[in-house]
Amino acid sequence: MSTKLGANGGQPVHGNYRGYYTKRPFVKDPRLALLPSQFFSDAVVLDVGCNEGWVTCEIAQQWGAKKVIGVDIDPELIRAAWRRRLTVWSLQTPEVPPHSYPPQKKRKRDDTPSVHLHSYFPQSMEHMFGPLPIPGRTFDSQEKFPHNISFHTADWVEHGLPEDRSGYDIVIALSISKWIHLNVGDDGLVRFFRRVSDVLRRGGKFILEPQPWETYAKAKRMDIRLKETANLLKIRPEGFPELLAELGFSKCERLGVTGEGGFRRPVDMYIKD
User: Fold this and answer.
1) What percentage of the chain's residues is helix, strand, coil (to nearest 5)?
2) How far apart are CA 128 and CA 109, in angstroms?
């Protein structure tokens, strides 16, 4: 979970790492690649602990989601997420209707096109001159990127968002369960899972990337409060499926394991009955 920096030397005691995606570099997130291609189509999605919004933007831009909301308690990370939205928009290939292309003579099979739309606004231009402006919202564009995404600063575990009242088709929680667990204990983790259940529509899906128990040892050394909480924990990550079943979720479906080194973790799916 990404929240405010701790007082202990500025340590990210809630998992609120700056530049997190420089540690997990990718163009397409390998965790999302474990999901079916139509998984997010026309869905309303909540990304809890969205950090700098890389995954949130990918879902909104490339996966056909109707609406995507990213929430993080750290305002600096949320500001970075809004900037990420601008960057992704600037680098996006424009949609050009087929009839707008000029007529071309038939080319041999090995000829290459004379126009490469993917490089119409190179990343170097964004660095030099800033991002492209986002056009105004229209009725036709409100469910398309970049208008189908928003970010909010909030302690979602404790307070939620106004948008929760409408419910979600999908809630994703990637690499945040450990930080919730270490900061607010077993009771706080149960509150988190219960809130996920409350905001999901019937048949909605919960995508969880739990960190293994052995990774708690290093994390709790960041702050004495984390160590004290860790000593009281009774729930273990391997017990999450049973706990979620008690809250009305289906049997855990392990979608796969991905990542390298310390980032190699499982990705699980639960469906609200």
Assistant:
1) 40, 20, 45
2) 37
Is the pLDDT assigned to residue 125 strictly greater than 70?
no
Q: What is the pTM of this model?
A: 0.83
- Residue 155 CA to residue 30 CA, distance in Å, equals 27
Taking alpha carbons only, the member of 100, 86, 97 closest to residue 145 is 86
What DSSP assignment string belongs to 120-185? SS-HHHHHHH-PPPPPPP-TTTTTSTTTTEEEEE--HHHH--GGGGG-EEEEEEES-HHHHHHHHH
Is cis: bond before 146, omega within 30 of 0?
yes
Taking the C-alpha atoms of residue 2 and residue 176, their distance in angstroms, rounded to an integer, is 7
Q: State whether residue 272 is helix, strand or coil.
A: strand
The number of beta carbons lying within 10 Å of the beta carbon of residue 112 is: 6
Q: What is the pLDDT of residues 26-41, one digit of tens each?
A: 568 999 999 999 999 9
The CB density around residue 265, as the number of other CB atoms within 10 Å, is 18
Dig out the tokens for 155 from the structure: 């302690």
Q: How confident is the model at residue 8 (pLDDT cuts 50, 70, 90)?
A: very low
Q: How far apart are CA 57 and CA 64, in angstroms?
A: 11
- R_g of the chain, CA atoms, integer Å: 21
Rounded to whole angstroms, how far apart are CA atoms 257 and 211? 12
- The predicted-structure confidence for 73-110, as pLDDT tens digits, reads as follows 999 999 999 999 998 998 887 664 444 445 555 545 44
- Assess contact for 3 and 176: CB atoms under 8 A: no
